[in-house]
Automatic annotation (TrEMBL):
SMART domains from the UniProt entry: S4
Gene Ontology biological-process annotations: enzyme-directed rRNA pseudouridine synthesis
Record-given protein name: Pseudouridine synthase
Gene Ontology molecular function: RNA binding; rRNA pseudouridine synthase activity
Pfam family, one: S4
Alphabetized InterPro entries for the sequence: PsdUridine_s_RsuA/RluB/E/F_cat (IPR042092), PsdUridine_synth_cat_dom_sf (IPR020103), PsdUridine_synth_RsuA/RluA (IPR006145), PsdUridine_synth_RsuA/RluB/E/F (IPR000748), PsdUridine_synth_RsuA/RluB_CS (IPR018496), RsuA_PseudoU_synthase (IPR050343), S4_RNA-bd (IPR002942), S4_RNA-bd_sf (IPR036986)
SUPFAM superfamilies hit by this protein: Alpha-L RNA-binding motif, Pseudouridine synthase
Organism of provenance: Vagococcus intermedius
GO-annotated cellular components: cytosol
Length: 238
């Protein structure tokens, strides 16, 4: 027997967290009866419906996507804006993003239909490094960014220590390129951290996720992860 939310996530319908929301909101039926409580367990012979559609088991798939700016990290948007899955029409499985990138942030995003995999990578206790390249206003000295290495308070919570590197500066335009490595995933975290030390972000890109990179790819392109890459991410999440 398996927990209902886990079975829904494994089917590729939604992440584990989203599956729990679907149950609470009354969108899930087991053998014709609506279920709204957590903890319900099901067996293989049970019929499970999500919003009236029976779920079926899918093989797990894992993709690396180069998200362009101006795209929502979601599978749908009520305002009609482009979402990441618009670029992946050739993928038959019902995939969803692992975590998110802001609308105006570009870079590396993972998508899958494996709920357990997504949960391992996004759970706060797992420390998978994510590397960002930010164009910021101003020309910082290294000591200006030192608070980032100790962790800074953002909205009443202290961030985990981050690694930083000033890649280049432009004294004429008064802008700089800064690399920041974090393992948390709070909303707008990189922007808020850099703004907190006095250097607002003009443009932001996620370059690395663990050891994964975007080499040879253009915005809007995607590729499958190799088995080695998948296993490496699972190891990092431990």
């Amino acid at each position: 027997m398996e927990r209902l939310q886990k079975v829904i996530a494994q089917s590729g319908v939604a992440s584990r967290r989203k599956s729990e929301e679907l149950i609470r909101e009354g969108h899930v039926k087991v053998n014709g009866k609506t279920v709204t409580e957590m903890g319900v367990k099901v067996v293989g012979s049970d019929t499970i419906e999500v919003r009236g559609v029976p779920i079926t088991e899918e093989s797990y798939v894992y993709y690396l996507f180069y998200k362009p700016r101006g795209v929502i990290s979601a599978v749908s948007d009520d305002k009609g804006r482009k979402v990441v899955t618009d670029f992946m029409a050739g993928v038959p499985e019902r995939i969803y993003p692992v975590g998110r990138l802001d609308y105006d942030t570009s870079g590396l995003l993972l998508l899958t239909n494996d709920g357990d995999f997504a949960n391992k990578l996004t759970h706060p206790k797992h420390e998978v490094n994510k590397t960002y390249i930010a164009k910021v206003k101003g020309v910082p000295f290294p000591q200006d960014l030192k608070p980032l290495a100790k962790g800074i308070n953002i909205e009443g919570r202290k961030t985990a220590p981050a690694e930083y590197n000033i890649i280049s500066t432009d004294n004429v335009k008064k802008t700089s390129i800064v690399e920041l490595v974090i393992h948390e995933g709070r909303n707008h975290q990189v922007k808020k951290m850099l703004e907190a030390v006095g250097y607002p972000v003009i443009k932001l890109k996620r370059e690395l996720y663990g050891d994964l990179n975007l080499h040879g790819m253009k915005p809007g392109q995607y590729r499958s992860l190799s088995k080695r890459e998948i296993n490496a991410l699972i190891e990092l999440s431990k």
